[in-house]
Amino acid sequence: MTKLKLPVNADDHVAGPADAEVTLVEYGDYECPHCGRAHGVVKRIRKHFGERLRFVFRNFPLIEAHANAEGAAETAEFAGAHGKFWEMHDLLFANQQRLGGALFMELAWKLGLSAPALSQALEDRAFETHVRADFSGGVRSGVNGTPTFFINGTRHDGAFDYPDLLHAINEAIGMTSGMER
Amino acid sequence: MAPSNPKDATESSSLIAPGTKAPEFTLPFAPNQALSLNELRGKPVILAFYPADWSPTCGDQIGLYNEVLPEFQKFGAELLGISVDGPWSHKAFVEDRKLRFRLLSDFEPKGAVARKYGVYRAADGITERALFVIDKDGVVAWSYLSPIRVNPGAEGILDALEKLAQQEGYDQTKIAS
């Protein structure tokens, strides 16, 4: 079983309580069509489990294959620096067909962020280090493509349709509840 | 780490093990251009045997290695892909996927190098999905046979390169510059 080497930490984007029963970590790429599909699945999963689940998204942009993946990841990080990570995350996936500089600016306006500041941040590659750190950590944890999920620190190697992910998470919960302190 | 699946190991002749001198070869990587393993002495070499060009998935093994290449290069390592596809197929594949490393053609006689490394699937006429990290002196430092449908990823390679770097006391900053 492949394990997540980099534990959830202060640099992560986390949705859900720290003491949730389950932690679901996704390594994803905003331009990857499979990740676009997975985004809808994760939304349903989060709704189903509510406060019992903590979701973490880490960047794994395949920049050689996807021209706008890095820009999208850095745009999400920019929004995150202004407290709007998840809003931007959702908008990027919702507009996956239109990724590019013009969309990034439009989404910044939409969220009440400064488009010129985003433009400058992209120009300066201000968030590149964070994105690269996510990518490197992913490679060392056995992320071989996108999306890759880890459930309570163990890589989920099965399919990621809603029933598959639901089942895998329920199994993980079953395992931990048997080992309660 | 990552021991080979014993079931898969029995399906081909045996994978050459760490400590073995890596068999020499000269193979084309493009029409009329060839590379010999011994040209790369002095730096670690990653040999990635894979079944075929043109796998349909995004984020497949070769695509992943193209993304991870800078991490390999931090160790001064040279990555080479090997399959039984011909040089013209490799050329088109490299151009289409914008690959930044060379793909070698184990094409004629077919699979001869894969056989030397113990990773030829004679029944299918393709190579196994197998990885070798060869040290700067041409000795196999790490090898791994992956189930053929499973992308083995890059972490095993990086672990092996890291170990080599520690053993050999590589000055990584020197290599990077």
CATH topology heading of chain B: Glutaredoxin
Q: Structural class of chain B, please?
A: alpha/beta
**Strand count, sense and closure of the main sheet of chain B?**
5 strands, mixed
Q: Could you state the order of secondary-structure elements of chain A as H and E?
A: EEHEHHHHHEEH
| CATH architecture identity of chain B | 3-Layer(aba) Sandwich
Shape of chain A: globular
What is the C-alpha radius of gyration of chain B, as a whole number of Å?
15 Å
* Whole-angstrom Rg of chain A: 16 Å
Structural domains of chain A: how many: 1
In DSSP terms (H or I, runs of 4 or more residues), the helix count of chain A works out at: 7
Given this structure, which CATH class of chain B is correct? Alpha Beta
Runs of chain A with pLDDT <50, length 5+? none
Number of strands of chain B: 9
Give the oligomeric state: heterodimer
- CATH evolutionary superfamily of chain B: Glutaredoxin
C-alpha termini separation of chain A: 24 Å
CATH architecture of chain A: 3-Layer(aba) Sandwich
Identify the strand order in the major beta sheet of chain B.
5-4-3-8-9
Jot down its keywords.
heterodimer; A: 181 residues; alpha+beta; Glutaredoxin; 5-stranded mixed β-sheet; 49% helix; globular; B: 177 residues; alpha/beta; two-stranded antiparallel sheet; disordered N terminus
Present the secondary structure layout.
The complex is a heterodimer of chains A (181) and B (177).
Chain A: E1 13-15, E2 22-28, H1 33-49, E3 53-59, H2 69-81, H3 85-94, H4 101-110, H5 115-123, H6 128-140, E4 148-151, E5 154-156, H7 162-177
Helix pairs in contact in A: 2-3, 4-5
Chain B: H1 6-9, E1 26-30, E2 33-36, E3 45-49, H2 61-73, E4 78-83, H3 87-97, E5 102-105, H4 112-116, E6 120-121, E7 126-127, E8 129-134, E9 140-146, H5 155-168, H6 172-176
Parallel strand pairs in B: 3-4, 4-5
Antiparallel strand pairs in B: 1-2, 3-8, 6-7, 8-9
